[in-house]
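Help wanted!
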Amino acid sequence: MVQKSKSNVIWKRLKKNKMAMVGLTITIGLLLIAIFAPAIVPYDPYTVDLSQSMRAPGQEGHLLGTDQLGRDQFSRLLYGARISLQVGIITQSISMVIGIFMGALAGYYGGKVDEFISYLINVFFAFPSLLFAIAIMATLGPGLNNIFIALGAVSWPGLARIVRGQVLQLKEQEYIEAIRALGGNDFKIIVKHILPNCMAPIIVTATLGVAGAILSEAGLSFLGLGAQPPMPSWGLMLSMGRTYVTTKTWLTIYPGLAIMITILGLNLLGDGLRDALDPRMKQ
Amino acid sequence: MLTYIIRRSIMAVPILIGVATITFLLTFVFVPGDPVRMIMGQHADEATIDSIRDEMGLNRPLSVQYFDFVLKIFKGDLGRSYKTRRPVIESIAERFPATLRLGLSAMAVAIVVGITAGIVSAVKPYSVVDGIFMSLALLGISIPVFYLGLLLIVVFAVNLNILPVGGFGGGDIRYLILPAIALGTAQAARIARMTRSSMMEVIRMDYIRTARSKGLSEKTVIFKHALRNALIPVITVIGTQLGYLLGGTVLTETTFSWPGVGRMAVDAVQSRDFPMIQGTVLFMAIIFIVINLVVDLSYGWFDPRIRYE
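Answered by r_m:
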């Protein structure tokens, strides 16, 4: 009951925030596109048809034109949403598992454990993240699966630091001490009593993290180190379009727009969630 | 103050060792395949490969290689490129000025545009101007740097034909304008948002009300009394962003064919030149650590209440 009324309050606050609702709409729209892409695309995004190469938007039934291999750009963009969301969600899941685990361990146990994990966090923070991801990709080789690993490995420290701070505060609360006095074991205390109470910053960080991961994937693919042809990754499409930037601008403009709208939507939603979940965090 | 600088510098040493360790693991432990074979190709004979392994010290135990690697870093030796056989540090020294030039120019754009927009927005909150600036800031944060770069190329280099498409142009400032704007935009947006929220908080404080009631001009109140305090959190953002900017020039350098360290790293990945990649990453991490130290120390200048003990 208490839980339900709490989420009602949060939803009401979120609903009042127009920008957050715009963000939510974009995000839901993107999710729907990703799920139903196979049913709604007018052309197969992988079929090469050189007779249709480089059609400008609107020509011969190609809403957003075709690329150098005659593939329909609109269909490829819709499929690209699948890749972007996959990257965002899987990367953030990896980052959350590591980040929450490390953060909770450091915050709860303190002492040497905390010192070591905090040290590790500081070391990871010392790397410029994109360059670090590039170095990991160099070791693992290009490809989508390796992007999950590289971006997951790069993005956990931010979350770990936040969780650590939260757990550090919460573990001193009386109700936690009471459970401990009653003989509750550490694992249960952390999972059942502490983590649920620090979900607000975790959700906000994860939402903004999805945006960051999508942006990084696009960047890595743009550099040729991420998704590989013929995948319809937005970053890769931009990288291909770059070759024709002076003559066939539609090959650059639309994939970039897709990335930008996605990031904008997630940023708006993330900001809105931050304000709704914890008004004290409002910037 | 001096003791604080020394203590903070000493604290950076373990971080540097950690950074070196991760880099070592990435280069020598996790890399699939034999690096020597990568350099020599599949057709080289075993004897040649073994002698080169010997020469590169790769036949020694991993622990010995590790200590050697870390020690060399502290001596400024980042290894030799597999491809050119030149010391990595030499190549970095050649390319870093271009990256620094781009990074600092982008930061200058970001600081000037960001702080100005932030102040204007904070002084007239919820006005039309504030709305426009903050919407632009939101777009600035969401637009990928390489996309903005390509758009700038389309508009200013292709359609208007007033600026070059890319390249270094031997240091000609016209070649710097578009890359600096592309790279600086996201930071300008972040700084604008931070300045606005920080200013709005400070403006509400009692001492600002006192300053106003003393009859001081609005200009003095804003610039002399409010801004200096409001800038403290902004400096943190600028500091962390400067490190990010230098690390994040990779995409901008590739978009504009700018001959910096970032592009060199991407080229190195394509040719699987591991010492070059790891050397670049290590170098940038060191720069990042140094910048953080400088940022930390600069707080005292802006906020005399902070004492270093």
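OP: Thanks! One thing I noticed: The first helix of chain B runs from residue 2 to 29.
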